[in-house]
């Protein structure tokens, strides 16, 4: 348990930060699943539109340090390859 005022404040901040990061990670996963689902159903135009939004989301989250930049690049690359495979 935190004893000093500074440690108590840092504990409060870490709880808030964790909640925020969890919600951002969830948003990321949902966006990726949405693109994958559209690719599976074969809706190319909708999948392209969703892919563009997902890339933006991935870049934002990687920029904030919630996920590593290499993981972001890998996810974008795999989605892009899956889209190209559709044609």
TrEMBL record:
<keyword id="KW-0689">Ribosomal protein</keyword>
<keyword id="KW-0694">RNA-binding</keyword>
<comment type="similarity">
    <text>Belongs to the bacterial ribosomal protein bS20 family.</text>
</comment>
<dbReference type="Pfam" id="PF01649">
    <property type="entry name" value="Ribosomal_S20p"/>
</dbReference>
<dbReference type="GO" id="GO:0003735">
    <property type="term" value="F:structural constituent of ribosome"/>
</dbReference>
<dbReference type="InterPro" id="IPR002583">
    <property type="entry name" value="Ribosomal_bS20"/>
</dbReference>
<dbReference type="GO" id="GO:0005829">
    <property type="term" value="C:cytosol"/>
</dbReference>
<protein>
    <recommendedName>
        <fullName>Small ribosomal subunit protein bS20</fullName>
    </recommendedName>
</protein>
<keyword id="KW-0687">Ribonucleoprotein</keyword>
<dbReference type="InterPro" id="IPR036510">
    <property type="entry name" value="Ribosomal_bS20_sf"/>
</dbReference>
<dbReference type="GO" id="GO:0015935">
    <property type="term" value="C:small ribosomal subunit"/>
</dbReference>
<comment type="function">
    <text>Binds directly to 16S ribosomal RNA.</text>
</comment>
<keyword id="KW-0699">rRNA-binding</keyword>
<dbReference type="GO" id="GO:0006412">
    <property type="term" value="P:translation"/>
</dbReference>
<feature type="compositionally biased region" description="Basic residues">
    <location>
        <begin position="7"/>
        <end position="19"/>
    </location>
</feature>
<dbReference type="GO" id="GO:0070181">
    <property type="term" value="F:small ribosomal subunit rRNA binding"/>
</dbReference>
<feature type="region of interest" description="Disordered">
    <location>
        <begin position="1"/>
        <end position="26"/>
    </location>
</feature>
